[in-house]
Amino acid sequence: MASEKTNTREPKENEALVRRYIEAICRGDHATIGELLSEDIAHDFSRDGIHLDLGRNNAVAWAKRAGRVDVEVLDLFASDDKVVGRYRFRIPGDVVLGGKKGVSAAMTGIMIARIQAGKIVEVWHEQDTLGMLLALGLAIVPMA
Q1: What's this model's pTM, rounded to 2 decimal places?
Q2: 7-135: which CATH number, 3.40.640.10, 3.10.450.50, 3.40.470.10, 3.40.50.150?
Q3: Closest by alpha carbon to 119, among 1, 9, 27?
Q4: How confident is the model at residue 54, as a pLDDT?
Q5: Which of 31, 59, 67, 122 has its Cα between 20 and 30 A from that of 40?
Q6: What counts of helices (H) and strands (E) characterise the chain?
Q7: Can you tell me the distance from the alpha carbon of 116 to that of 109, in angstroms, rounded to the nearest whole number?
Q8: Cα(56)–Cα(78) distance, rounded to whole angstroms?
């Protein structure tokens, strides 16, 4: 096994780490989520051009608020220090600002995670936010 200090982990090891992270989200296993994230994890939401340095504690707090999230991994593969995943998940409505408790929405997305020294240090997301907002009744389809 390659030394994590030199950041020469095998792509399959990185893929397994991200799969473990997704499984922890599905189980609501916040200890494992925290273990796999770097302390200063950054999230990039390319759909909005938003870059958030959430940090591990805020990322775990969001996961606790969301509770168990039903994630279906459609594709997952790794190259060097990056892992790319295509997924579908169901999110509770009350996690979204303005959303209602007891309502949920399915959402699809693509994630790219960068791994360094055995931790997820950065994640880029591209998600169907409009589809989620429509499903939650928080947006309407504009008429032409």
Answers
A1: 0.74
A2: 3.10.450.50
A3: 9
A4: 61
A5: 67
A6: 4, 6
A7: 23
A8: 22
